[in-house]
Amino acid sequence: MIPTIEWHGKHIRMIDQRKIPSKIEWFICRGYKDVIRGIQRMVIRGAPAIGVAAAMGLAMGASSIRANSYAVFRKKLKKIAGEMLLARPTAVNLRWAVERMTGLVETMAARPVDDIKSALRKESEKILEEDIEINRQMGNNGQSLVPDGATILTHCNAGSLATGGYGTALGVIRAARENSKKIKVIADETRPWLQGLRLTAFELMEEGIPVSVIADNAAGSLMRQKRIDLVITGADRIAANGDVANKIGTYQVAVLARTNKIPFYVAAPLSTIDPTVKNGDLIPVEERDPEEIRRFGRLEIVPARVHVLNPAFDITPARYVTAIITEKGVITPPYRQGIKNLFTSARL
Ligand code: MRU
Predict the structure, then answer these.
(1) Which atom of ligand 1 is nearest to the CA of 286?
(2) Parallel, antiparallel, or unpaired for β 211-214 and 184-188?
(3) What is residue 1's predicted lDDT score, i.e. its pLDDT?
(4) Has this prediction a pTM greater than 0.90?
(5) CA of 162 to the centre of ligand 1 (A)
(6) Where are the alpha helices (DSSP H) in 180-306?
(7) Does any ligand 1 atom lie closer than 6 A to the CB of residue 246?
(8) From ligand 1's centre to the CA of 113, what distance in Å?
(9) Which domains does the chain show, CATH number per domain?
(10) Which pLDDT score, from 0 to 100, does residue 302 have?
(11) Does residue 48 line the site of ligand 1, with CB under 6 A?
């Protein structure tokens, strides 16, 4: 499994996901603004990976702050945190990570600035390690939902590359495989960034898990032909009522799954659940540059004066979600209570 992101001395390096599978190349971040650019330009993407990147970027930004007093340091760090929060709007893991890092600073008012800087770096390392462990737990919790011999449809990339490692939806798939289940995966291509076709296919191929890629518009037909047994996706944000924001196209997959009586599972860590947002309509959906649709590589594929819409995510109402798989257990409807329980109980 190639690492998604790591510290490299004082710098941070992330695998440039825009180039996979043609090239495996590091994108080096020498300052926190490089991390913000990396997130905005899709060098690193996927909700948990964005959270990890934000934490590391904040630690890197903190290390460059010149301040002799806690008050000045805190003020400057808050400014960096504010910039980081604006990098991408939908994945709540970014806000979660920034709040965890700034929360740590609030507990260290009596400590020298250098101590706070090294504590922030350690915290970012911990967030990365924890993320991998959480994904393994999620995989373990979710794999029992995968029957032996199943063909699983997934959308976008919710794999190792979208997280600190191991993956959420692909984590469940990996765990099923580790439990000797013979499974096959079908990956939606996932226009316009092709995360399914490029990243999910790459990850699964590398591990010898059988994978086929389909055009996004083929999923319904395959379901109707009973060639898909279940769907597992990740999430960018889950509202308090269980509505799920995920990569554009997820909603239509969920509706098709329901129509075809196929279970639709969402695998996501608690850091993706946002209990402050009552329902999916209140989740901010990122609208990206129309150029991402207008061009295919260098080729212009949309007539020049035609307007393009490019919402990057959609909302799947909770009623289409068969279960949500988390590191603390699997919850089923009604989600409002289930989600409350996740945040109060140690383990379901
Ligand atoms: O635009 P992206 O590639 O950041 O979108 C990613 C997704 O929608 C993933 O499904 C989601 O972040 C879950 S990743 C574990």
Answers:
(1) 1
(2) parallel
(3) 82
(4) yes
(5) 6
(6) 201-206, 219-224, 250-259, 291-294
(7) yes
(8) 35
(9) 5-136 (1.20.120.420), 138-347 (3.40.50.10470)
(10) 97
(11) yes
74, amino acid identity: R
pLDDT, one tens digit per residue, over 212-241 is: 999 999 999 999 999 999 999 999 999 999
158 alpha carbon – ligand 1 mean position (Å): 6
Cross-strand bridge partners of residue 11: 8
Which listed residue (34, 131, 236, 274) is catalytic?
236
Q: Determine if residue 120 is left, alpha or beta; phi over 0 gives left, psi from -120 to 50 gives alpha, anything else beta.
A: alpha
What mean pLDDT is reported for the chain? 97
Let me know how many helices (H) and strands (E) the chain has, helices first.
Answer: 11, 16
Confidence of residue 348 (pLDDT cuts 50, 70, 90): very low
Beta carbons of 245 and 315 less than 8 angstroms apart? yes
What pLDDT was estimated at residue 313?
Answer: 98
pLDDT digits (tens, 9 = 90+) for 280-337: 999 999 999 999 999 998 999 999 999 999 999 999 999 999 999 999 999 999 999 9
Q: How far is the CA of 319 from the centre of ligand 1 (A)?
A: 21
Catalytic residue flag (residue 236)? yes
As a whole number of angstroms, the distance between CA 141 and CA 55 comes to 26
230 lines ligand 1 (CB under 6 A): no
